[in-house]
Amino acid sequence: MKRMTPIAGLGAVALALAACSSTDSDDSDATGDNGAAIDVTTSIYPLAYVAEEVGGDRVNVTTLTPAGSDDHNLELSPRQVNQLDSVDLVIYASQYQGAMDDAINTTSPERVIDAMEYVDVADDIDHSDHDHGDDDHADEDAHDHESEDAEGTEDDHDHDAESEATEDDHDHAEDTTDESADSHAGHDHSGPDPHFWLDPTQTALLAHPVAEQLAEIDPDNADEYRANADALVASLTELDEDFHAGLAQCESRDFVVSHEAFGYLANAYDLHQHGIAGIEIDTEPSPRRVAEVTELIEETGVSLIFATSDAEMSITGVLAEEAGVEVDILDAGATQRDENVDYEEIMRTNLTKLQSALGCS
Fold first, then answer.
1. Is residue 65 within 8 Å of residue 43, measured between CB atoms?
2. Confidence at residue 56, expressed as pLDDT on a 0 to 100 scale
3. How many CA atoms lie within 13 A of 26 on its CB side?
4. Confidence (pTM)
């Protein structure tokens, strides 16, 4: 397995939570205490979904990104950072959330899964080919996952004798943290597109790595975790097949979205996303980009613009009103807007909305 290891180092320096998530209740288990023996902390909801599906009732999963928040600009309290040292397994995606990269780099979780080590980070992800003005998110070549391995040193990570990872894995973890911290400050997303979970086949790639880690923590129930992983892969494969079938016959293959979160989805199902802004939610589109999107709407006959979250509805709504089109949410799914609506339901709702917007039969 590629990277299942504690990250050495002591101390934790993190920003305070935003007002919407600053209470002590947010530092507690997000899913409640169900008496499970295995504590799992994840950075975003799709990773929590995998852990819950594979671990079942034997895991207690906490998600650090609050529902409805800007997942790219995650902020963690010192207490949340320190708690990473006490959980059994941490699952996150490197070079996505600067606060999470920093937290991993400054603590020593017993076991860590970096999702980006398992998914297929493609170089030809379908981002809009338009200029976004001041942001630096249009260069697809910058999304080469292999370029993440920059200059790291062995001294920054003390290798535990029980660790399964190699020195390169630790160097990689440090380098992605440093790069992410710099890019987070300047909103220059020079790393890979993190939105892999919007392609169900990519999400499925995490099922067995999670199962194997849970099996090592709890060997007595290893067969159960592996069976659950098999079931999850089967379910996500069926979801993928439904996407292929549902988007095969469409009048249009172009959709406009508030920011470029759907590159993996577009790449998987032969669609073309056109982002008003770049990969990160807070990227401010230039007037030139807004004019380009307006022209695109006129040329393609797009009747609907998608926002990826409730927070983006107001900004997207202004452009939609000016262009004379409607606006709706195509859920990027990094957080769970409704605790009763799980990952598969989010994706199936997205499929239905895309079918309607693209005139699919």
1. yes
2. 97
3. 19
4. 0.73
